[in-house]
């Protein structure tokens, strides 16, 4: 059987880090996707091709005369990371549906953005692989999404050591989601008016796992950090109400507050301070680091579509890459 799976990437609007400590968060899928083409193969071999995966290139050697590339060194760690998520997802899924069984798959993976920039590529690979495994073993494309989300979250937890359900649940179900990590539950929330965001990223220097550990360590040491986590939880609850009401001015103000609180947690880089301040000076209603921090993804709320284009050119001059000017609606599809 052959499978084609489209897995959206995601952006965090509110509540990153605090969600690891039991607070709610708001995230959304994006209209950009990781795609997985796969088929069952005989035996228990796993063949993975990384066609068109945009990898951070470590070095490149050029023949000056013919301007021919003679050597490209890609970041092996990135490939190893993907392999780890794929094999872990398959193990978890097979232990759930056919304990002890291991099946062969040929998997071709394509990603429009590099891994580890805070847009959920790891979660997308986990969700896509779990979807593939369940569809293959249960011989149906009508896969129970609650099971996909649950097993994908277990994959992230096993690989990273700690992970909230935010990325995997948002990517599984799609659209803007209010995540309650205690249940876990991913409630769909919708604004009555269109919100114009720009979403981009800069190079990220630390992994999500590292940043989650840094915040955890500070929380263990400093009582004041608990108040920051509580404050982020409060921002999320307020933001949910203003999104539902379509009050974009208030949503923007809360994005700015959330950015300040992320800074207090110690995960905002100098480069992101510059980008966020420039976006605000260019009239953004709100702008913040998005995801684990340490560079990586950011999100800004524009006044309208035209203004989003202006903000896009502002961040491009600062060397950032813009990946979307709107949020997505769909979750994982097979
Ligand atoms: C993940 O995109 C962002 C963090 O909140 C970690 C998590 O939710 O697992 C920092």
Automatic annotation (TrEMBL):
User: EC number(s) for this protein?
Assistant: 2.7.1.36
Write the record's keywords in alphabetical order, separated by commas. Answer: ATP-binding, Cytoplasm, Isoprene biosynthesis, Kinase, Lipid biosynthesis, Lipid metabolism, Magnesium, Nucleotide-binding, Transferase
* Positions of the GHMP kinase N-terminal domain: 84-175
In its keyword annotation, does this UniProt entry include Nucleotide-binding?
Answer: yes
Q: Which reaction does it catalyse?
A: (R)-mevalonate + ATP = (R)-5-phosphomevalonate + ADP + H(+)
**Residue ranges annotated for the GHMP kinase C-terminal domain, each copy included:** 243-317
Q: Where found in the cell?
A: Cytoplasm
**What GO MF annotations does this protein's record show?**
ATP binding; magnesium ion binding; mevalonate kinase activity
Q: Where is the active site?
A: 167 (proton acceptor)
Its GO biological process annotations read: isopentenyl diphosphate biosynthetic process, mevalonate pathway
Q: Name one Pfam family in it.
A: GHMP_kinases_C
Pathway of this protein?
Isoprenoid biosynthesis; isopentenyl diphosphate biosynthesis via mevalonate pathway; isopentenyl diphosphate from (R)-mevalonate: step 1/3
- Gene Ontology CC terms: cytoplasm
Enumerate the InterPro entries for this protein.
Answer: GHMP_kinase_C_dom, GHMP_kinase_C_sf, GHMP_kinase_N_dom, Mev_gal_kin, Mevalonate_kinase_arc, Ribosomal_Su5_D2-typ_SF, Ribsml_uS5_D2-typ_fold_subgr
**Cofactors named for this entry:** Mg(2+)
Q: How does it assemble?
A: Homodimer.
Report the protein's function.
Catalyzes the phosphorylation of (R)-mevalonate (MVA) to (R)-mevalonate 5-phosphate (MVAP). Functions in the mevalonate (MVA) pathway leading to isopentenyl diphosphate (IPP), a key precursor for the biosynthesis of isoprenoid compounds such as archaeal membrane lipids.
Q: Which family does it belong to?
A: Belongs to the GHMP kinase family. Mevalonate kinase subfamily.
HAMAP family from the UniProt entry: Mevalonate_kinase
Protein known as: Mevalonate kinase
């Amino acid at each position: 059987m052959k499978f084609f799976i489209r897995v959206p990437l995601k952006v965090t609007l509110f509540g990153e880090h605090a969600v690891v400590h039991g607070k709610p968060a708001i995230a959304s899928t994006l209209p950009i996707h990781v795609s997985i083409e796969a088929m069952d193969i005989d035996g228990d071999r796993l063949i993975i091709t990384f066609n068109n995966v945009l990898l951070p290139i470590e070095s490149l050697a050029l023949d000056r005369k013919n301007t021919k590339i003679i050597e490209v060194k890609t970041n092996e760690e990135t490939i190893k990371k993907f392999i780890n998520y794929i094999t872990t997802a398959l193990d978890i899924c097979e232990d759930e549906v056919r304990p002890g069984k291991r099946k062969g798959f040929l998997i071709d993976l394509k990603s429009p953005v590099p891994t580890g920039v805070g847009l959920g590529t790891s979660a997308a690979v986990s969700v896509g692989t779990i979807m593939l495994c369940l569809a293959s073993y249960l011989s149906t494309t009508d896969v129970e999404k609650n099971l996909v989300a649950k097993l994908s979250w277990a994959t992230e937890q096993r690989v990273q050591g700690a992970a909230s359900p935010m990325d995997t649940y948002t990517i599984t179900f799609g659209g803007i989601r209010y995540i309650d990590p205690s249940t876990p539950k991913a409630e769909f929330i919708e604004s009555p008016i269109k919100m114009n965001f720009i979403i981009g990223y800069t190079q990220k220097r630390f992994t999500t796992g590292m940043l989650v550990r840094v915040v955890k360590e500070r929380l263990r040491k400093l009582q004041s950090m608990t108040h920051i986590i509580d404050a982020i939880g409060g921002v999320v609850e307020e933001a949910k109400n203003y999104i539902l009401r379509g009050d974009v001015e208030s949503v923007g103000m809360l994005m700015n507050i959330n950015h300040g609180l992320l800074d207090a947690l110690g995960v905002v880089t100098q480069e992101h301070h510059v980008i966020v301040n420039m976006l605000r000076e260019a009239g953004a209603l709100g702008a913040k680091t998005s995801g684990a921090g340490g560079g990586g993804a950011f999100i800004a709320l524009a006044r309208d579509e035209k203004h989003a284009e202006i903000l896009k050119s502002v961040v491009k001059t600062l060397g950032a890459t813009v990946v979307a000017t709107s949020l997505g609606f769909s979750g994982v599809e097979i």
